[in-house]
Amino acid sequence: MGEDTTTLGGIHISPNAVATIAYYATLESYGVVGLAPKNLTDGIVSTITREPSRGITVRYKGEDIDIDINVIVEYGTRINSVAQSVGNTVRFHVEKALGLRVNSVNVHVAGLRISDTD
Hints:
Layout: E1 3-6, E2 9-12, H1 15-28, E3 32-35, H2 40-49, E4 56-61, E5 64-74, H3 79-98, E6 104-113
Parallel strand pairs: 5-6
Antiparallel strand pairs: 1-2, 3-5, 4-5
């Protein structure tokens, strides 16, 4: 997965490229405040490098693409609706950009954030 051969040469799509597409699609979704790091180590590394794929894991299994996303949701929004919206938006944008089918998009709500009322 992520590789294709044409008459002009080979094409390889890195998991980081897919994660970047998923990152920007996630931030478009209503109710998402940001993404959370997958673990403490990734949190420290992403703070230093400002990598856009923070909080997103992409796995290739044969012809399948599996995406895990860790989001922080706005307090007061319906969590189930936000998670479904993120999943659908990410699936649409990745499939549109790559022309490949996404097997699963797993949305993990890592926290809630209360916005400023000032």
